[in-house]
Amino acid sequence: MAKGSQSVAKINDDSIVNLILVLRGQKVMLDSDLARLYGVTTKRLNEQVKRNSERFPRDFMFQLSDAEKQEVVANCDHLARLKFSPTLPYAFTEHGALMLASVLNSPIAVEASIFVVRAFIRLREVIATHKVLAEKLAELDNRVGQHDESIRSLVAAIRQLMSPPPSKTKRIGYQRDGR
User: Fold this and answer.
1) Residue 41 CA from chain centroid, whole number
2) What is the pTM of this model?
3) Which of 99, 129, 127, 77 shows the shortest CA–CA distance to 31?
4) Arithmetic mean of pLDDT, 172-179
5) Most buried one in 42, 43, 55, 104, CB count within 10 A?
6) pLDDT category, 167, cuts 50, 70, 90?
7) CA distance 124 to 137
8) Around 60, how many Cα atoms within 13 Å sit in the side-chain half-sphere?
9) Per-residue pLDDT for 10 more than 60?
10) What 3-state DSSP class applies to 40?
């Protein structure tokens, strides 16, 4: 077994799923995480991106703003090393991560890209499952809301039955004001 294959064998879908972030409404991975997975330095990865810029349109990658960088550093422990980096990291979508593997064209990158794709697919499935669950909860909430109204009506009806009926007997004796 080749040395590169041993390092890729340690990669699993769970570890990659934890590296996927949501930025600008997209699921992305940062250049430093992809470089580590693909067995290259972040500098080499970004050099290849610049050399092949036509392969990376805006929907494949974007550079983080300073505020976004500070946010990911604050929220992700494994990105603490970026805190004092003078450069802003790049974020790659699923398609961008695949394109990186083809640009890097190393056996490790190609093999690791399979795990990256599987992680994105798994994340999509989890999100879809949560969406279905959210829809079912909304439906249940709607039903419970309707049941609440029915229960309130029943309680009101029971209270009416429990209260004594108004007396229909006439009082004997003198009545004022025509009562």
Assistant:
1) 28
2) 0.59
3) 99
4) 66
5) 104
6) low
7) 20
8) 14
9) no
10) coil
* Residue burial 35-62, b: 16+ Cβ < 10 Å; e: rest: bbbbbbebeebbebbeeeeeebeeebbb
Rounded to the nearest angstrom, the gap between the alpha carbon of residue 150 and the centroid of all alpha carbons in its chain is: 37
CA-based nearest residue to 91, from 36, 43, 24, 11 = 24
- Return the axis-axis angle of helices 31-38 and 107-162, rounded to nearest 10°: 130
pLDDT at 61: 94
What are the structure tokens assigned to 96, written together?
Answer: 């961008």
Looking at the chain, the number of H-run helices and the number of E-run strands are 7, 4
CA angle 111/120/57 to nearest 5° reads: 85
Q: What is the 3-state secondary structure (H, E, C) of 133-171?
A: HHHHHHHHHHHHHHHHHHHHHHHHHHHHHHCCCCCCCCC
The rounded distance, in Å, linking the Cα atoms of 97 and 89 is: 14
Residue whose token pair is 């570890």: 15
- Residue 88 CA to its chain's centroid (Å): 23
Mean pLDDT across the chain: 79
Residue type, 142: N
